[in-house]
Specification:
This protein has 3 helices and 7 strands. With 144 residues, it is α+β, with helices and mostly antiparallel strands. A hairpin with a 5-residue loop joins strand 3 (39-45) and strand 4.
Length: 144
């Protein structure tokens, strides 16, 4: 197993798309680490002290750059332009929970650049070299 100290971060301006209302700009902090090489953590800052964090499969975000991807709670797809990104292409991200649904638009170029940097750090197919499945299972069993 390789060192999991790899970290890639970014701060992106997202839009929360609200039907029949003005879209709401917000900041999303993206974090990718070698400790969890299959996932991207996204913390949404909506102007309050409370931060909402979601964890996404890196592959799901990557697939959504070119084609519709995901089923159920998380779906992604590209659009040639969004509601407030000056005609720039966007990555649509829809999150569903028992409490409702949220539709976000992320700037395509910035998201693609962030994901490229994650693949530079840990190439696709090599995630298992950074992930210690034995330690994760021990941790889960210890908590049980």
């Amino acid at each position: 197993m390789m060192d999991g100290g790899t970290t890639v971060t970014a701060e992106l301006g997202f839009l929360l798309v609200v039907p029949r209302q003005a879209s709401v700009p917000l900041t999303a902090s993206l974090l990718y680490t070698g400790d969890d090489p299959y996932a991207v953590r996204m913390a949404f800052h909506a102007g309050t002290d409370e931060v909402v964090e979601w964890i996404f499969a890196r592959d799901l975000l990557t697939a959504g750059l070119t084609d519709p991807a995901g089923k159920g709670d998380v779906r992604t797809w590209p659009s040639p332009s969004g509601h407030g990104h000056g005609g720039e292409p966007v990555l649509n991200i829809v999150l569903s929970s028992p409490f409702g649904e949220a539709h976000f638009e992320a700037p395509m170029t910035a998201m693609a650049e962030f994901l490229r940097r994650t693949y530079d750090a840990i190439p696709a197919g090599r995630e298992g070299e950074f992930f210690d499945i034995g330690a994760e299972l021990d941790s889960l069993l210890w908590r049980a």
